[in-house]
């Protein structure tokens, strides 16, 4: 059985490959509504998370530990692995570093949902705003740049100097970078100018106001999978086209959408699924309003990425990642 560590995974599978691998699974007929739900179990010092799925030629499960106190120990708060099995014989094939696969899969998923509309609306480049300054915020910069030219970037954070990871990632790609403090005039101005907005926080209340968002803006809300938490206001979702990975799973975990529906801004019949978006190559998304992509993460996406890494490992060390869009 292979062991695919973080370095091997991140040097073998690119963000663009992970993004397009998910879309290809949907076009081949995979139905995210069939993915088994995420479950959890309490531990003395945190939680277990279990995310099982069967997709393509594989079955597998991602098992993670969540240890909040590790932040004070300068250790990862999320650790674990993906166990990958053959889909027909169910023989074990590989273990894959769980934190690394989450780091890769999450921004790739964000771009998988918005790729078509981003590339259609912003052929010549886009000003991007990202809320948050952590690892996922930085990873979203790389994933965005692999999808559409990012001409400038503003990170909106709670305190001065908290966006250094994002600044460093922007510098890698030569992207003009600024930092703005939440709710400051500079942050509001950046939001008003942004064509692409990503919220990568653990916020439970909206981070911005509907009136500050352009009619042609594309937004990704990916910071929470809790029904009682949201990063975007309901009235923004009410005037937008909204997409989720799975309607059924969205009803369980997509707090931004759930709360907007509870407030009467839209209904589940108004919401597009990932399958509809991928199979139509974004034709189902009109261009006369904002588009909001709400992702929560499902186990099938991790299995797709783990499968890409496993196949690349079988091809040998020359099968390095391809950064083509």
Automatic annotation (TrEMBL):
GO CC, alphabetical: cytoplasm
The keyword RNA-binding belongs to this UniProt entry's keyword annotation: no
SUPFAM superfamilies xrefs: NAD(P)-binding Rossmann-fold domains (SSF51735)
Catalytic activity, EC: 1.4.1.1
Pfam families, alphabetized: OCD_Mu_crystall (PF02423)
Signal peptide: none
Record keywords: Oxidoreductase
InterPro entries xref list: NAD(P)-bd_dom_sf, ODC_Mu_crystall, ODC_N
Protein name: Alanine dehydrogenase
Organism: Brevibacterium ravenspurgense
Gene from which this protein is expressed: ala_2
């Amino acid at each position: 059985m292979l062991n695919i560590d973080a370095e091997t995974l991140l040097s073998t599978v690119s963000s663009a490959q992970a993004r397009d691998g998910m879309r290809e699974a949907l076009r081949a007929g995979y139905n995210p509504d069939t993915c088994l739900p995420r479950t959890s179990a309490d531990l003395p010092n945190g939680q277990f998370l279990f995310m099982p799925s069967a997709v393509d030629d594989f079955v597998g499960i991602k098992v993670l530990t969540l240890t909040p106190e590790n932040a004070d120990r300068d250790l990862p708060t999320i650790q674990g692995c993906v166990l990958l099995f053959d889909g027909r014989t169910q023989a074990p094939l590989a273990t894959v570093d769980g934190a690394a696969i989450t780091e890769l899969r999450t921004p790739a998923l964000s771009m998988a949902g918005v790729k078509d509309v981003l590339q259609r609306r912003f052929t010549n480049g886009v000003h991007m705003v990202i809320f948050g300054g952590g690892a996922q915020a930085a990873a979203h910069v790389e994933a965005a740049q692999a999808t559409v030219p990012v001409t400038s970037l503003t990170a909106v954070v709670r305190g001065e100097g908290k966006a250094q990871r994002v600044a460093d990632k922007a510098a890698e790609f030569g992207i003009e970078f600024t930092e703005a403090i939440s709710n400051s005039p500079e942050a509001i101005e950046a939001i008003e100018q942004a064509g692409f907005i990503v919220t990568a926080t653990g916020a439970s209340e909206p981070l911005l106001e509907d009136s500050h968002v352009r009619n042609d803006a594309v937004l990704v809300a990916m910071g929470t999978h809790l029904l009682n938490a949201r990063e975007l206001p309901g009235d923004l979702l009410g005037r937008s086209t909204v997409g989720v990975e799975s309607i059924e799973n969205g009803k369980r975990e997509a707090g931004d959408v759930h709360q907007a529906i509870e407030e009467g801004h839209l209904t589940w019949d108004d919401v597009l699924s990932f399958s509809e978006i991928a199979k139509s190559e974004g034709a189902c998304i009109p261009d006369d309003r904002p588009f909001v992509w709400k992702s929560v993460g499902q186990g099938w996406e991790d299995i797709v990425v783990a499968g890409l890494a496993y196949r690349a490992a079988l091809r040998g060390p020359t099968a390095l990642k391809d950064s083509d869009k």
